[in-house]
Amino acid sequence: MIPSSGQEDVEYTLGVLYEDPHLICVDKPPGLLVHRSSIAADVALNALQVLRAQLGRHVYPVHRLDRPTSGALLFALDPETQRAVNDQFAAQAVRKSYLAVARGFVDESGLLEYPLSGRDDDKKREDITGWRRLATAEVQHPVGRYPTARYSAVSLSPRTGRWHQLRRHCAHLRHPIVGDTSHGDGAHNRFFRDVLGLPGLFLHAESIALSHPISGEELCISAPCPERFLAAYGAFEWRARGGTLWKPCGHRTDER
User: What is the DSSP letter of 83?
Assistant: First the structure.
């Protein structure tokens, strides 16, 4: 559990998914900022601060996850490694896979190329997201103006890294991610929260893959499926890892 902003002195650690002399990847819980931000100036606790205290050394972020998004978060342990990994991100050579639960029946697979503005400016550029549908469910419960509710488990693969890219791209496809309070559907968010007892954003950074900046070897790091996803999969009778709905690092299995 993440301490509130008034409990920063509480001992708090992050689960380590991978560590070597140059890189460390942690399992970020939902609700934790990656670093201090002006949009949440009242929140002092963040992953950068926690990990520095946990390791007793400086760490260097190489990418970000939205505050409500959970999963694999990578840091460099020295500035040279940070620059090398940033170069891979700039070249779109880093492969990331996310799990999400979206409203409606998403097409089996696709690639969306839709430009988005940045958080701090209106300049648009090419932004690309691929997806694969993993499972669907129709719930016999009225949500919004419809007598039933439809949902899809999806694997999302962003090829670019725009602010809120996955959330905004899913909303553009008219399949917003459940629990998204900025770009989502309030009726379905309330259904998950109040009826299913599952609050929060259903977006999880499942894996990150890149060439190791020192050895050049392929590195693939996976984060375990969070409890809120397992609970949703149980409610919809979807099978999770070992069941098998997906494999690590975005390699989907065809078994249902």
Answer: H
Tens of pLDDT, residue by residue over 214-230, are: 999 999 999 999 999 99
What DSSP string runs through 123-188?
-EE--EEEEEEEEEEEESS-BTTBSSEEEEEEEEEESS--TTHHHHHHHHTT-PBTT-TTTS-HHH
The values of phi and psi at residue 90, to 5°, are -60, -30
Q: What's the domain count of the chain? A: 1
Q: What are phi and psi of 174, to 5 degrees?
A: 65, 30
Q: How many CB atoms lie within 10 A of CB 111?
A: 10
Torsions phi, psi of 16, nearest 5?
-95, 125
Q: What CATH number corresponds to the domain at position 192? A: 3.30.2350.10
- Asked if residue 240 belongs to a domain, the reply is yes
Which of 9, 20, 66, 78 is an active site residue?
A: 66
The DSSP letter of residue 109 is: E
Say whether 66 is catalytic: yes
Task: Tell me 143's DSSP state.
Answer: B
C-beta of residue 179 within 8 angstroms of C-beta of residue 201: yes
Q: Are strands 203-211 and 70-76 parallel, antiparallel or unpaired?
A: parallel
Cβ(138)–Cβ(148) below 8 Å = yes
pLDDT digits (tens, 9 = 90+) for 103-152: 999 999 999 998 987 665 556 678 999 999 999 999 999 998 899 999 99
Residue 2 within a domain: no
In a domain, 169, yes or no: yes
Q: Is residue 25 part of a domain?
A: yes
- 82: tokens are 């940070």
What's the predicted TM-score (pTM) here? 0.87
Domain of 219, in residue numbers:
15-250
